[in-house]
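Hi L.,

You mentioned the student needs an example of a multi-chain input paired with its predicted structure. This one should do, with 947 residues in total across all chains.
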Amino acid sequence: MAIHNREAFLDNLAGQLGRSRKIKVESPHYSVHPQERVFQGATQDELVEKLEDQCKVIHTSFMRTDLERLGETLRSVLLNYDVTKVVGASGPRNDETGLSNVYTELQAEGYDIHIWDKNKGQENITFAEQAGAGIVFSDLTLAESGTVALFNDRYNGRSISLLPETFIAIIPKSTLVPRMTQASQLIHEEEKKGNPISSCVSFVTGPSNSADIEMNLIVGVHGPVKATYIIVDDI
Amino acid sequence: MSIKIGHKPYAERIQDGLNNSFMRKAVSSAQGRFRSGRLKAAEELGDWEDWRTLGEEIRSHTMENLDYYLHQLSEQVEKRGGTVFFAETAKEANEYIQEIAKKKQAKKVVKSKSMVTEEIGLNETLEKSGCEVVESDLGEWILQLDEDPPSHIVTPALHKNKEQIRETFRKKKGYTGSDDPVELAAFAREQLRQDFLEADIGVTGCNFAVAESGAITLVTNEGNARMVTSLPDTQISVMGMERIVPTWEDLEVVVSLLTRAAVGQKLTSYITALTGTRLEDEVDGPEDFHLVIVDNGRSKILGTEFQSALHCIRCAACINACPVYRHVGGHSYGSIYPGPIGAVLTPLLDGYEDHKDLPYASTLCAACTEACPVKIPLHEHLIRHREIIVEQEKMTTTSEKIMMKGFAKWASTPAAYKLSTKMARTTLKPWTKDDYIEKGPGPMKGWTEQRDFPAPSKERFRDWYQKREQRSDH
Amino acid sequence: MKVSLFITCLCDTFTPEVGKDTVELLERFGCEVDFPAGQTCCGQPAYNSGYKSESIKGLKQMIKTFEQAEYVVGPSGSCVHMLKEYPKVLADEPEWAERARKLSGKTFELTQFLVDVLKVEDVGSTFTGTATYHPSCHMTRLLGVKDAPRILLENVKGLNLIDLPMKEDCCGFGGTFAVKNSHISGQMVQEKAEHIEETQADYLIGGDMGCVMNMGGRLRRNGQEVKFLHIAQVLNTQ
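Structure written out for the whole complex:
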């Protein structure tokens, strides 16, 4: 931890700008704010509809369920993908939503389930690399772009949503916001309050893709090849 | 690599480009798709002009206070366990990174796509000190295997077709599959997955750093940047010093502009914001993080009339809108930054000597300026470059100077103008046939090589007008 | 309404008929047109090539020429835009910059003047034929005149207007670019010629003589039988 060569570097910039170094800068007032008008006043259900529409654009399957049927829905998704090795995020939401029980049941049925455990270190990554699916909870969901925002932490390792071939996001309806504007405002407010941001915020929009070969869209490159969003209505 | 690519003179590069029919077809179709994607995305979003205005205001405010925001950024990064290195030159940046690699005894470095590391020639430096460097962006990987420079800042291998890519994979990696893009990409996935897992160091660029929190944001689609920042123990991010926004709220705006202007997406598959090192109770992510902030000629642009060139968010919308780029392709510019923004930036970063032709590689049609999501007046910058080339650098030919001096005299002296326009038809008579000139002399040669030139009219407008006035007077 | 015609050097020398049509059109809508004989060229060829200092004398000549005018109207978006750039070019000479601002404020491109100032959308002309229109870059992007030519052409009786594919693309003229980078320019105008061919139009209409000369010259070189006209010529056909 250190900062090298800073003062000379920044003195030079100030000099180029024809002034001395700035110690304080007032927050600017921008003349327009178009970002606030997108989906202004939309209800949660309207946002769900927007999300569903966008899922078609981003090659992502869209499922809608409630807490009671969450296990059933998840099971059908895994069956559909023909996946038996699964890595899931840990944390209090697994118990709150009953997902822990679902995992236990699945395990009893022969599924190989690994719940992210910081005490297991590298083993988590090794498992995730072999897993067919990774399951996470969305922290914030952006309806406009169909994006799941993940504040990666000790429960939700970066690898879960990255290494397995299939990405499954459980999206509580309450996490839906119109677009990245609201997510950014939230982070900005937290930052101002002195609550440091997660070491990795991943805004994930569907599976990975590339158009690097003759502009052909290839879905699934380094990250997941397939993605499913499961909207849970009553949380 | 450095900013300059290749050693061929401009005229030769242009001819190579014009003769490359596959490349031209590929570029033309890519431009069509990029352009319709951009326009559709802008329309869906609505208020596009307001968004552009906001983008411009954010970028302008940031540049005006760049020292402050870079200071804030460095404080935040340090607070979160990272090390910040301010590099005035490419050499300083490379040596610092080389030093880290040595300390870590790194054997393998895996990279995500980064133009600034191309600019400073980082790969060559690391390779010299014995590291294997692996580019993991699909396009960049193809180019690395084929030892070819990028021709576009967003889709770097735009100029290659799938047959060429299959051949490259065969020769360099023992690929045995077909030229189906899906199969080619699957092969890259499989090959590179091992590299991600083995790498000692991950190197990234930086789309935008966020000063208030110290986050480095990467905008990608393939997921390779997440691999590079999740798996290796050491992460080094390299950023051009202007790639910064004050707050998350500003970040959101420029990202919204970037993804739409670049590829017509609302957001790309991954927007990854990385702050410092992984926390103690986290398993993946780097335990050591270095941010290298690079000047390499940028500060000379600050405070000048070209300052808005630093507002660029590297979306390539200007490149995708440019009809000149469409016909000559990226390599013709002789710079890793091609197209209109390349023609503006390259002489600023790397001097006029090697790049004095670039500002003239434009019809000044302003399609670039219109496409730019942060309203950089690109075509005006090109005119200003031309002024500097003519008036300060004095790099134009004597014949052009004589011609322009003649023009100036002509345009400022009505008598000379009148006489010459009166004589024009007679003067050009030897070359005229059926009221057209098909092979013109001297400065007309360039014109008539490509199209016919009309003979001056028998009667000028002013002659007609004068006669008409006389008629009505009597 | 008094209008001083800014003919542009190209129309003066190569296509005086465009000037005649412009005068007649303006007169038809009640303008009193004069032609200040001291006018030369707008200076764009030198200015856009980087010869700013060299161009300034000519700019001043133009400012002086049109100083007394009430309105200045020209049949070219590009040259009119150049006149509007004068205040910027002369920024270092405040007195001239002020005079340039006055000129800039009263200068209009022909179709812009008809639609925005004279409020004419139908000039009452009849032109029988199939045509396509190329909207020039400087007229649309720099001067911001996007709708006026289309509105006027749509109201011409007998005219079957076909949309030009990729119409917003530059034709490759670019002033000295056509000479300095003639190979690139040639490919650009060739592409334009192919798009014109696709429309199967009998006429190509443009609002800027430079672009029309470029495209027309290529059409002729290719042996394409498309006739090319300035918009004033179409609007003044009865």
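You could point out the following to them. Chain B has two domains: 10-300, 417-473. Chain B has a mean pLDDT of 96.

Best wishes,
N.
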